[in-house]
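Continuing the batch. This is chain 6 of the set; chains 1 through 5 are on the previous pages. Same settings as before, nothing changed between runs. Recording input and output for traceability.
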Amino acid sequence: MKKVVSVLLTAALAVSMLAGCGSEEKKDALYIGGIGPTTGGTAIYGTAVKNGAQIAVDEINAAGGISGYQIEYKFEDDQNDAEKAVNAYNTLKDWGMQILMGTVTTLPCVGVVDKTGADNMFQVTPSASSTDVIKGDNVFQICFTDPNQGTKSAEYIGENNLAKKVAIIYDSSDVYSSGIEEKFVEEAENQGLEIVSAEAFTADSKTDFSTQLRKAQDAGAELVFLPIYYQESSIILTQADAMGFDPIFFSCDGMDGILTMENFDTSLAEGVMLLTPFAADAEDEATKKFVSTYKEKYGDTPNQFAADAYDAVYTIKEAIEQAVADGAEITPKTASSDICDALKTAMTKINVSGLTGGEDGLKWAETGEVNKEPKAVKIENGVYVGM
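Output for chain 6:
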């Protein structure tokens, strides 16, 4: 009988040791997860977000944390794929995530918001700009919405008399691109702009834009609006140069990244204009400090995605502190759903003077949409220069 008991105790001890090796005890910290592409064709966006957020986390922890608690931060790669983003979300939940900072790109974010809505998980996205992202009351954006980008772009072109005849090349299969295009067309009429050509492409036909460019050229377009990502834009700029077509090219935040794209002649982007919430050459102390830290840690100049992520983490901090001031209890032991309920109200009360908010800072409506002013930049000598 003693032998039997001894064997059972030994077996139980072995099982408990194995269980301990396979799990990590949750630390006494607030757990913030992030999701975005760090591999694949859009890795430049996710990597920038991961890095920008890490700088904010390090600064906050060094200054004493949030309400006295340190931040534990973990970022998962989704390769810009909706299914992988959902898998990443589940991984972070198992890890103990209480708040989600992500996802980075729109389509994966649309997939994840259904999960965070069902779980009542508070979610801040730095850069997923579709209005579909904020359909639930638990999600808030740091970036402009697609309609906002379209409207602001048309306003800027019209108010600064950049052109009268405008062509558009957009991706009708992408909610980001088509959403911006729709609102741009609406505001262009208010600004007295003539849309002389509006040509679409899809994800299956984005390697040859000669037809779209020829139609814009033949129609006498003085400016070509590109509400698309930098990968397709690089092809358009290359093909336009080859055919001798030299209009003003104007874009939105999806263009950010073209200057660091491999095997692209950046001289072809000279003179390209875009609206962005962040300019790395800005002279304010907060921007100079962030750019210096980013270059030191990662050997690169931060783009707007990095800045939006930095602001996203500080937004979470200020929302938590506001909620605590209002009487909520938010600790490492607080359930994510309870945190979410407290932060939904707190978000509409705060004003974050971040890197991307301009003089008036970042403020939020109950819809989750941010109110902030964009900056216009122009590519000159291979860098973004504020206009």
